[in-house]
Design the sequence.
């Protein structure tokens, strides 16, 4: 990944949810982790498939309205009981930390 790539990614980083280091907000991520996130987020956003029930299109093929629609549709995946237990444990650990 060259410098040109990085500059291109920074242009889309304004779409990132959450605070960015430029705003002087303290983040628990190291710069390397943050850069990895900046790289993976658009990758998921553009190349990932939609998880909404009955959709399954590439994220990049969604119009803003379709995206709005899909984000309010139940996911076409379900958690098993074991998976749900893990989520509860992970959330509890988050509260303690
Ligand atoms: Zn969709």
Sequence:
């Amino acid at each position: 990944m060259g410098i040109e790539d990085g500059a291109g990614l920074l242009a889309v980083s304004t779409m990132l949810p959450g605070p960015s280091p430029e705003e002087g907000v303290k983040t628990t991520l190291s710069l390397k982790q943050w850069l990895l996130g900046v790289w993976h987020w658009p990758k998921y956003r553009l190349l990932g498939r939609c998880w909404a029930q009955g959709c399954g299109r590439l994220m990049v093929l969604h119009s803003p309205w379709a995206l709005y629609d899909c984000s309010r549709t139940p996911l076409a995946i379900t958690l098993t009981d074991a998976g749900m237990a893990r989520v509860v444990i992970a959330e509890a650990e988050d509260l303690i930390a």
Summary: The radius of gyration is 17 Å.
